[in-house]
Sequence to fold (224 residues):
Amino acid sequence: DTGVSQNPRHKITKRGQNVTFRCDPISEHNRLYWYRQTLGQGPEFLTYFQNEAQLEKSRLLSDRFSAERPKGSFSTLEIQRTEQGDSAMYLCASSFQTFHGYTFGSGTRLTVV
Amino acid sequence: TQLLEQSPQFLSIQEGENLTVYCNSSSVFSSLQWYRQEPGEGPVLLVTVVTGGEVKKLKRLTFQFGDARKDSSLHITAAQPGDTGLYLCAGDQTGANNLFFGTGTRLTVIP
Fold:
């Protein structure tokens, strides 16, 4: 297992388009998290899955955002009708338990033009 | 509301100098973690501290958790250019399903 994998690494899209990101966590980890990070800031929590169940969503996750984790394996994060304010690094992480620490992927950098 | 405030926000030092980064909150955390992040990459876990007053050492890095479990510090001895990066603290609160990340300290070590 080579860690958490995220695709694509970079995405440039026009405002109003839909985008989808994929995250492949460490296979033994049952917890999966999505965070968003803007320049100069720490990561902000978006949503959390335990196995296939989405157990928590941040208020940052507007109706344009949806995340899935079918069969408790990989996860996708979709943003519909992108806005310039969605430009950020989207980070995926997985873990056994929160206090064990997260293993992050390299992130997907989204630029909305 | 920012749960975890880090200071300083930016730090630029010469190779060989010592430095301390602080992570403060008014909230109590069941554990606190430190991560280092390089440009274009995700954060990498350095250490987890769990017990109030706990001190952990990782080579030239010393981490301390405050007695009241509301704050933490990271001390680097004889900094090297390879220490350059964004240092993030992250807290785990009882009952929460996710980590809360601090604002970050961007460290630059000049050769």
